[in-house]
Amino acid sequence: MSRRPLIAGNWKMHLTVAEAVQLAKALAETARNCPDRDVLIAPPFTALAAVCTAVAKSTLLVAAQNVAWEVQGAFTGEISPTMLTDLGIAWAIVGHSERRQIFGESSAMINRRIHGALGNALHPILCIGETLAERESEQTFTVLQQQIQEGLDQVTAEQMRTIVLAYEPVWAIGTGKTATKEQAQEVHAFIRGLLTAMYEKAVADSTRILYGGSVKPDNIDDLMQQADIDGVLVGGAALQVESFSRIICFQ
Ligand SMILES: O=C(CO)COP(=O)(O)O
After folding, report:
1. Which CATH fold would you assign to the domain 6-248?
2. Is 168 annotated as catalytic?
3. Active-site residue among 105, 130, 168, 188?
4. Catalytic site residue from 96, 98, 105, 134
5. Which residues are involved in binding substrate (predicted)?
């Protein structure tokens, strides 16, 4: 089963509108030269409109970094799925570990966001990952299973066609400590097995599972050679044209 690679950059809370547009335009050029893979960027909310306009004619995909579950109402600080589709956005990151850990988002809340996205024609990228303490106490698989089952609660096999999963071990995010390719592959294979049990093999085989956590130009090629790693979700190294272009052009 061949899955189309997806190289995604999460810009987190970085860049002005002008900086974001400049970076997006440069990356659109890189993406154009690599037509056999999907390239996605997730700018901060403030830059989404300008970036969407700037890359509208390119193949670059644009995502929001989060999404609300209701389409409108008294939800101060939230951005609704239809506000995103109004800009032409088709993707949203959901359940990033920074949302879970710093802002206290629960699995139930993340599941509501997933349904908010799915119900409004957005492709969710559901992030999951264990902390260092959980890995050291050998709870990695239990934690991931719980995050996936709760995050995907009431999600149908049909809806799974539009969902991407991103495995981001918390201890590897922004630390320079990437999981080894063997560690990442082991978890990705576990996740695919879990999807087979929850749905069916065809769903597991067609779901893209990204790795995230200190992905850099010097480890991308090894990671992408693993059987169950279908792409990456990159933080720091996605903020510079040179490093992210090298990651996009993995061999
Ligand atoms: O959190 C991440 C992407 O969502 C990974 O961040 P880094 O690539 O900076 O470790």
Report:
1. TIM Barrel (3.20.20)
2. yes
3. 168
4. 96
5. 10-12, 174, 214, 235-236
Query: 24 to each of 5, 212, 232, how far by Cα in Å?
Result: 19, 20, 18
CA distance 62 to 82: 15
Tokens of 65: 């970094």
| Cα separations in angstroms, 204 against 17, 43, 215, 243 | 38, 29, 24, 31
Could you state, in order of their start, the residue ranges of all structural domains in the chain? 6-248
- Identify whether the C-beta of residue 81 lies closer than 8 Å to the C-beta of residue 119: yes
Residue 204 CA to residue 199 CA, distance in Å, equals 7
* Interface predicted TM-score (ipTM): 0.99
Residues 3 and 205: their CA atoms lie apart, in Å, by 8
SS3 236: helix
DSSP label at 54? H
Residue-level pLDDT, tens digit, the chain, 251 residues: 689 999 999 999 999 999 999 999 999 999 999 999 999 999 999 999 999 999 999 999 999 999 999 999 999 999 999 999 999 999 999 999 999 999 999 999 999 999 999 999 999 999 999 999 999 999 999 999 999 999 999 999 999 999 999 999 999 998 888 889 999 999 999 999 999 999 999 999 999 999 999 999 999 999 999 999 999 999 999 999 999 999 999 99
Please give the model's pTM, rounded to 2 decimal places: 0.97
Dihedral angle, C-alpha 115, 131, 129, 248, nearest 10 °: 120
